[in-house]
Amino acid sequence: MQLLYWLTLLGVTGLGVTKAREIHRKVPDYALAMDYRSEDWSACGLTDEQAQALRHALVQGLHRNDAERILKHYQFIMEEDVEYPAALREIQTPPPLLFYQGRFVSNEQRVAVVGTRKCTAYGKRAAFETAQMLVHGDCCVVSGLALGIDRAAHRGALLAHGRTYAVLGSGIDVIYPAQNQELAKQIIETGGAVISEFLPWTGPERYRFPQRNRIISGLSKAVIIVEAGAKSGALITSAFALEQNRDVYAIPGSVFSLSSAGTNELISQGATPLLHPALTLSTLGMQVEHGLICASERRDDPVIQRKQFVEDQEVEDIVQVEQLIIRELAAAPMLYEELLMVLEADNTCTQSIHTVIALLEIRQVIGRELDGRYYLIGHTNLST
After folding, report:
1. How far apart are CA 336 and CA 343, in angstroms?
2. 164-173 pLDDT tens trace
3. Which residues neighbour 54 within 8 Å (Cβ) at sequence distance 6 or greater?
4. What's the rounded Cα separation, in Å, for the pair 10 and 21?
5. Average pLDDT over residues 63-89
6. pLDDT tens, 126-148?
7. I want to staple 198 with a disulfide (CB 3.0 to 4.6 A). Which of 77, 108, 202, 344 is the partner?
8. How many domains does the chain have?
9. Do 44 and 163 sit in the same domain of this protein?
10. What CATH code is carried by the domain that includes residue 35?
């Protein structure tokens, strides 16, 4: 009967999750609710229209067929169930109901990887490789099944043979966008889950996507914003994460890239920069004492030792690239292609050059002239 009660409350037009939860706290029992008259519901803070609608829905059993359909055909979990994720209970407005397809595990380590739908090749690769590293750290990757960064994060987790959750802005029967139907199927078949707080047959609406973002961050111990413009929906997720006391990380991008305007701003406001996908575990490993990354606690595991060796090597590569760029720009401004040629001639790893340049720009160590040449800020070039 609790399922029917929740469906009835959430079905009242304009009531919303917050008010529905408030009513449920005041009147937690379906049988008791059946005895309430419209004026009783009005005394609970509902408008006259809402009170009448709720009374009518209860008396007529308007949502009884929905409840029977859900019980027969769908997997779901309610907030009062012991299996309900503890992390979600902590947030300001936990979803009373979660519907899902696949395997939903309540007590695992999860990290969200999100970003813009209109991502660049740089962002797509960063999301893909970051998700893979999280899988190596025994984390489930949480994202929103949107195009762009979300899709890349899900695919990265799958190709690393990991688990990933897709939190939808529609019902679990209505995969949106349609291009991701096959991806959703793969997520389910490989031990992950497609999750939604909306009735399974609910279609996508613009306002539902920001609403689901609180679940993406709420399920996760940390949120990584890969690439986001100044008005990207991913910034809503980061705001929810901060409200929920989650750690927020951002991958820096070029100061000239509109797709990175939001992430760079997050870093300037205090978000921890994630300087390279290979550094994901070591960067988030600062939270090991809180049990965030389980795998990094197994120091004696040879597999973990190997991964740590790879990360340490990547750190050395980044430092080497940074030092070489500063050295060359101290002599004269250079184009990106010229810097790349110097690195190649020096047998230096060039994979991290985009990240290093972006980081140096954010730190205001280097700048870029109108002709595209990079220069060292506050330095008198030797050629002048």
Report:
1. 11
2. 999 999 999 9
3. 8, 9, 12, 15, 41, 46
4. 9
5. 92
6. 999 999 999 988 899 999 999 99
7. 202
8. 3
9. no
10. 1.10.150
